[in-house]
Design brief:
By secondary structure, this protein is an alpha/beta fold. The chain contains 6 helices and 5 strands. The protein has one domain: Sugar-phosphate isomerase, RpiB/LacA/LacB (Ribose 5-phosphate Isomerase B, Chain: A, 3-Layer(aba) Sandwich), CATH 3.40.1400. A 5-stranded parallel beta sheet has the order 2-1-3-5-4, sandwiched between helices. Strand 4, helix 4 and strand 5 form a beta-alpha-beta unit. The chain is globular.
Length: 148
């Protein structure tokens, strides 16, 4: 899968571990920063992650910041993005299956590397449901996006 990955300074170290793991799993990964632990504003990185998805360069995006919250808020400001904070495996896979989430946000201050790998694995393995209920709801989200 083509995955774009970004982090702010709080997520920099965990992002590095996840990048290596994703590549070991055979994914095509684009790192859009940050590239060192110096302070950086998470909205700038979230914009890059979102742009790669909206343009079709990546199928899904992963953001790592301190809590995941700021990254999710930022990414969701971009049309075509459905971002969610996922700190448990159930939310990670269900966010895709029910809500067609294309950006997962995790908090490096909340989860460690082993749980982060489990979260990302569950999220990447999930597929959007063919259920009419979920398709209808996501279509309503797209309509709300179009109203902006």
């Amino acid at each position: 899968m083509r995955i774009v990955v970004g982090s702010d300074h709080a997520g920099f170290a965990l992002k590095g571990e996840l990048l290596a793991w994703l590549r070991e799993q055979g994914h095509q990964v684009e790192d859009v920063g940050s590239y060192d632990p110096a302070p950086v504003d998470f909205p700038d990185i979230a914009r890059k992650v979102a742009a790669a998805i909206v343009s079709g360069k990546a199928e899904r995006g992963l953001m790592v910041c301190g809590t995941g919250v700021g990254a999710a808020i930022s990414a969701n400001k971009m049309k075509g993005i459905r971002a969610a904070v996922c700190h448990d495996v159930h939310s990670a896979h269900q966010s895709v299956e029910h809500d067609d989430v294309n950006v997962m946000c995790i908090g490096a201050q909340i989860v460690g590397p082993w749980l982060a790998r489990d979260l990302v694995a569950a999220w990447l393995a999930a597929r959007f449901s063919t259920s009419e209920d979920y398709r209808r709801r996501v279509a309503k989200l797209a309509a709300m996006d179009a109203e902006r």
